Structures are given as structure tokens and as C-alpha cells.
Amino acid sequence: QVYVVFSEELKCWCRALVESIWCQADGYQLRCFLVDYAKHCSVPSENIRVLAGAFAKIPPRAKKCRLHCTKPLTLHIDYCENTAKIGPAKRWDAAAIQHFRKLLE
Predict the structure, then answer these.
(1) Whether pLDDT at 61 is above 90
(2) Where, by residue number, does the polypeptide cross the bilayer (predicted)?
(3) Which of 33, 47, 50, 66 is the most exposed place for a label (fewest CB within 10 A)?
(4) Please, are residues 4 and 16 in contact by the beta-carbon 8 Å criterion?
């Protein structure tokens, strides 16, 4: 379900999907995906509202997606043998993410 949350970063109300909720000393925090900005943000629980009326029927401008069958790779360097090979990695590194974003632009 899509809700409306107030984004401190954007200084406006945005449509969002709630991904997770956790408790803090001063209340609950929500991890949200902003469907019109393709951004993640954290908002306090008092900054969430139910989306009503015709606004609920507007399709989102951003969609979460993944690259099909694409696995992260990294450069493995063996200093003893003075070799470097590309091999599988557990996570995408920052340089690969930055390169991919530039390709998309």
C-alpha cells in the first residue's frame, strides 16, 4: 500500500512504500521508498498519512527493479603471485555502482 510521508530532505509530502519499521527511544521510525523520486528515506511515524481519493490511483513514476541474472564482480589481487583476476563478489562496490549510474544517465 502506498502512503504519504513528509521527506525532510525534499521538504515536501511524497508518496511512499513502507519497507520496514523499528522502535527508537522517541518513537517509531519508518524506512520508506519514495515512489516518485526513486529514493529511500527514514521518517518518524508521526510524518505518515494514508493516501486518499484520486491520488491513490496515480501510477508511480519510479519502480523498484533488479538486473536479471547480473552478479557483482570485483578485482581479486594476489600480491604474492603478482596477478589480478576478476571474480565474484558478495556486494557491488562503490566504483561499480557509480559507473552503472553514469551509464544510465
Answers:
(1) no
(2) none
(3) 66
(4) yes
